[in-house]
């Protein structure tokens, strides 16, 4: 209890009314919506692409075997090497006997028919890894970049930790079954979102319907491409341990949703569930802008400053995505440690808006000082000191 009182003494929360914001939105006939039926798939995540907020979660934080969805991390490492200038799309790597024998045509898994000892460009290898989920392409990339697949796996795990993907542990570059190979569907959604946001030009490759290499054409296995308007990625997966799953993404009317699921018994079941979940991702959730960029959100108290308060604004629009019928029950609070102490620079982050409510994942948005606040003059500081001595804070 003492700790709670101490925290409360330095944390100020100001409730911000959201009722007027909700009322300003077009009303729908169905005010309340029952929750969607339980997913057939396991480890389900539905994420808003703009904010990263998780809209639906069915065991979404439980580590699972990712199958070829793990290739998202393999591809990310290659993209980062390209951006750093360590390699180029024209860099060529040699297909080792190991890559050919264990992950190429003799293996019977997904591959792009790479001949042993052949030289292949990074560009072709990336397309093979993304479009046809080629295991041999991933291993050739791993060996070319790090010297061995295991050395590459160390890079994958280090990058996962740096990105905050706490459930992730990779043991190979392909996603093949391994008892220690695990990542949650929520972390896979975060990984996909990171690629979409940071590599938009390359991300277009994920929507390519087929890929031809060595006179062989193979189709992209993503069941949403061409069947769900706006679908543009991302990655399917299947192994004995994981079942059939996928990471999917679509952009509809300027809004992006990302879905992840696993554990289906067949490709047909995966296709059906992908469509169902993606429809739910757009039909069952509303996007609402609470505040425009640089609009006043509230104010914070300032002690011994040239002004007693400072206006708080958000540098970016504050937008939420919530299940239909939930927005009217949400509350928002401005939270900061205060009163604030000057000097305060214009644009300094000094508070946050916390939006929360039943059936809604709490979201936090940074708020900054709208103007510069200097220190009060010597007389004001002396008077405040006397007041505190006589009457206390």
Short description:
Helices cover about 30% and strands about 30% of the residues.
Residue share in helices? 25-40%
What CATH architecture of the largest domain do you see? 3-Layer(aba) Sandwich
Main β-sheet, spatial strand arrangement: 1-15-16-17-13-12
Mean of residue pLDDT values: 88
Beta-strand percent range = 25-35%
Distance between the termini: 21 Å
**Gross morphology:** elongated
**What is the radius of gyration?**
26 Å
What do these coordinates show?
Helix content is 30%, strand content 28%. With 393 residues, it is of the alpha+beta class. The chain folds into two domains: 2-23 and 289-391, D-Ala-D-Ala carboxypeptidase, C-terminal domain (Peptidoglycan synthesis regulatory factor (PBP3), Domain 2, Sandwich); 49-283, Beta-lactamase (3-Layer(aba) Sandwich), CATH 3.40.710.10. The strands form five sheets. It has a six-stranded antiparallel beta sheet with strand order 1-15-16-17-13-12. A five-stranded antiparallel beta sheet has the order 3-2-10-9-8, sandwiched between helices. The two termini are 21 Å apart. Mean pLDDT is 88; it is low at 1-10 and 19-32.
Keywords summarizing the entry:
393 residues, Peptidoglycan synthesis regulatory factor (PBP3), Domain 2, 5-stranded antiparallel beta sheet, alpha+beta, 6-stranded antiparallel beta sheet, 2 domains
């Amino acid at each position: 209890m003492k700790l709670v009182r101490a925290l409360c003494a330095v944390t100020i929360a100001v409730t911000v009314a959201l009722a007027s914001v909700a009322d300003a939105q077009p009303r729908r006939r169905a005010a309340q919506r029952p929750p969607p039926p339980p997913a057939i798939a396991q480890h389900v995540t539905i994420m808003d692409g703009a904010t990263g907020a998780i809209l639906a979660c069915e065991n979404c934080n439980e580590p699972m075997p990712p199958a070829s969805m793990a290739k998202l991390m393999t591809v990310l490492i290659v993209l980062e090497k390209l951006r750093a200038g360590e390699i180029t799309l024209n860099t060529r790597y040699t297909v080792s006997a190991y890559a050919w024998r264990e992950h190429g045509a003799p293996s019977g898994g997904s591959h792009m028919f790479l001949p042993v000892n052949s030289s292949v460009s990074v560009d072709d290898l990336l397309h093979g890894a993304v479009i046809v989920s080629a295991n041999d392409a991933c291993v050739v990339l791993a060996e070319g970049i790090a010297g061995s697949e295991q050395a590459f796996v160390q890079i994958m795990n280090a990058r996962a930790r740096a990105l905050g993907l706490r459930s992730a542990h990779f043991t190979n570059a392909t996603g093949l079954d391994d008892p220690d190979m695990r990542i949650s569907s929520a972390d896979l959604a975060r990984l996909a979102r990171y690629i979409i946001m940071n590599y938009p030009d390359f991300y277009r490759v994920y929507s390519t319907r087929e890929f031809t290499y060595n006179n062989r054409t193979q189709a992209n296995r993503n069941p949403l491409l061409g069947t769900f308007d706006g679908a543009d990625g991302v990655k399917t997966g299947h192994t004995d341990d994981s079942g059939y799953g996928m990471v999917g993404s679509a952009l509809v009317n300027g809004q992006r949703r990302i879905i992840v699921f696993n554990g289906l018994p067949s490709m047909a079941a995966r296709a059906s569930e992908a469509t169902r979940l993606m429809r739910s991702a757009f039909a069952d959730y509303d996007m609402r802008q609470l505040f425009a960029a640089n609009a006043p959100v509230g104010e914070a108290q300032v002690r011994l400053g040239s002004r007693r308060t400072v206006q708080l604004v958000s540098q970016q629009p504050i937008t939420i995505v919530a299940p239909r019928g939930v927005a009217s029950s949400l509350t928002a609070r401005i939270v900061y440690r205060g009163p604030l102490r000057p000097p305060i620079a214009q644009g300094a982050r000094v508070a946050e808006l916390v939006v929360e409510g039943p059936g809604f994942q709490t979201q936090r948005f940074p708020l900054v000082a709208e103007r510069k606040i200097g220190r009060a003059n010597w007389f004001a500081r002396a008077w405040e000191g006397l007041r505190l001595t006589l009457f206390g804070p």
